[in-house]
Amino acid sequence: MRALPLPATSTQADFTTVLLNPDGSQVAAVAVPTTASRIPSSEANTNPTSAKATAGSLFHVNGYNSSATITYLKFYDKATAPTVGTDTPVLTLALPALAVFSYDLQGFVFATGIAYGLTTAAADNGTAAPAAAAVLGLNVVMA
Asked: Which backbone phi and psi does 12 adopt, to 5 degrees?
């Protein structure tokens, strides 16, 4: 397979890579990450965030958990900031205590929007907030 280059007039919304068979027939069109949502330093709350108000794909998450407690990054398929503890997450990532974290999500699809929040409780209805500056340099890369 080979990748078809983007046309010179592409805009950010057009960033896809088209995979081709050796004979030139199309195999698939793959979205390429084009934007990021970030939290430089978490606040002493659940940090409810609407990262993307339309359908999208989640590719990569990284940062540092400076807390001695595991923190949970919960993702929601919605166009607005979540109500952590009431809305049901579609994906929960455990951020190990006192460690750098990096997750490759390979284009996890959200039909409505991409939203997230942080808790120290693993349960879907958990609302325990992390301390201020518990999560540092959180980057959520998506398309």
From this structure: -55, -40
Give the number of other Cβ atoms within 10 Å of residue 26's Cβ. 10
Q: What is the DSSP letter of 12?
A: G
> Which of the two residues, 130 and 17, has the higher pLDDT score?
130
Residue 14 pLDDT exceeds 50: no
Q: Given the structure tokens 């896809």, which residue do they identify?
A: 16
Question: Distance between CA 76 and CA 90 in Å, rounded?
Answer: 5
Q: Over 60: is that where the pLDDT of 3 sits? A: no
Measured between alpha carbons, how far is 18 from 64 in angstroms, rounded to an integer?
A: 34
Q: Which residues contact 65 (CB under 8 A, 6 or more apart)?
A: 71, 95, 96, 97, 98, 99, 101, 134, 135, 136
* Per-residue pLDDT band at 22 (split at 50, 70, 90): confident
Separation in Å, CA 4 to CA 18, 22, 37: 5, 12, 28
CA distance 129 to 119: 5
Task: Summarize pLDDT for 40-61 with one digit per residue, the tens.
Answer: 999 999 999 999 999 999 999 9
